[in-house]
Structure formats: C-alpha cells, structure tokens
Design brief:
The chain has 272 residues and is α+β, with helices and mostly antiparallel strands. It contains 6 helices and 15 strands. The protein is globular, with a radius of gyration of 19 Å. The N terminus is likely disordered. Bound molecules: 2-oxoglutaric acid (AKG) and fe (ii) ion.
Amino acid sequence: MRWPHPILTGWPLGQPSALWINAPPPFDRVERDTQATYSRAMLQVTQEEGQPSSNAMREAVNRDGYVALDIVDFGTPENLLQLLSAALTERVFSPWKSLKPRAKSVASPVSYSGMYGFEDFPMHSDMANWKTPPRYLILLAQSGAKTVQTPIIDSAWLISRVGQTELTRSLVQPRRPIQGRLPLMRLLEPKPSGQQLFRWDQTFIKPASPAGLIGFSAVAKLLKQAPRTEFCLEKAGSVIVIDNWRMLHGRSSVSQEDRGRELFRAYLGGAT
Ligand SMILES: O=C(O)CCC(=O)C(=O)O
Ligand SMILES: [Fe+2]
C-alpha cells in the first residue's frame, strides 16, 4: 500500500487526488477543555477496486457526528465540494465563502465577529434561527492556525440529560426577524425521515414559551460541562465536516500570531 493511501478513485476530473479520513479520538478520552492535539491516525479505510470511499465518510459522520479529512491533493475546492455532496447525498446549499478573524469594529454588528471579534465564539449550530438549518457544515483551512480550536459538542449528550420530550416542547424564536417573520421553532425537532434536528444559538435565538425557557436554561447550563472535542484546522487542506443538525461547534479566541487564519466554509443540504 502506498502511503498516504489514496482512498478516492474516479476523481471527477480524472486528476490524481488523495484524501485521508482521520480517526477521531475516543469520546471518553476527550476531556473538557483539553487542548490535546487531534489523533492523526488514519481510519482503516481499504479501498477495494470500484468501492467508493463515500461509504467510509458517511459511516464516520453517522457514527461520530463529524469527520475530519486531510486533503493531500485535490483539483479545486469546487471538486471537493461536489465530492462531499455526492458522498453525503445532500446538495450544495451554498458554495465556499472565505472566513477570516475580524475585529468587532470592522465586522457586521449582526455577525459573530461583530459581536465577539477575536474572542471565543459561543457553541452554536449554524443558521439555528432559520426554520431548517443546513444539514452539513464544512470548514476547509486555506491558511491554518495552530492555536485556534474548533470545539464540538454532541447534542446526544445534552438530549440524554435534559430529555427528549422537554426539548421537543421547548419553543424558541429568532431574536431578530428573518424575512420579516419570527417563527416559533423547537430546540429539538423530530423529522418524518426519523432524523432529528437540534438547534442551538444563544446569540440568535431566544426562548418563546415557559417550556422553552426551561429547556433553554437547562442546555445553557449543561454546555459548560458537556464533553467536547477540540479540533484544530491547523494546516492548509485540513477539513472538518460537521453534522449541523446534531453537533454544536464554536471557535476559540484568535491570538495575534494567528490573525492570518483563513477558512473556507460551505453548507450541504437545503435550508429554509
Ligand atoms: O471561524 C470558525 O472557526 C468558525 C466560525 C463560525 O462558527 C461561524 O462563523 O459560524
Ligand atoms: Fe458557526
């Protein structure tokens, strides 16, 4: 076997490409607030002739709620996005957008940077104030940063403590109107497909009923002790794909030396 082992074949442009799927650290070994570097062990993905690596990626996301990849060589970010879209069978909702750390003073006042600047971003799901947030969030390092972490929390841990029923009854609302409306939504929404959607964002949504207040406060309190995985997009080509209906993510503060960090972000799965 060559090393690194190229697990992708049939690259859309027929160009050589390789991609590693990194094994996540065992969850019970991830201590809250640890800065431990992410395990670089490769998942034992054996690429049999003609068998798409998509299965390995889908399995990893279904099991862990996220998958970390190292792009060793790929055509373009657009190719990568098409490949992830095919692997996870969700259409591209929005193409790559560059994200750079910004001071509060130069960012939109209704953005995370406008509110938190270079400080920690609180744990959240993206577009939690939308009725249906996009299913997958993809972060690709264009310019990595060794001291900036992407903490991730599994909502399953929160749901098992607060209660499925309680969270399903917890009504919330956007803090500001979305397209002129303030729809009532649930913190936890069972979907007809059997999937469920957990939304969380203290910055952009607020409780909208007595049960909502109870659920919201319970989650806010538990977040402090929830086990979290600290992932680091440390070098160009580091990628993390996050199930945005299941996992919460954040961003640690950005030190002076890492102000040059640049990520590309894209979403998969229709949002409304
Ligand atoms: O910069 C990052 O690492 C992620 C930022 C983020 O979570 C967001 O803008 O929603
Ligand atoms: Fe985010």
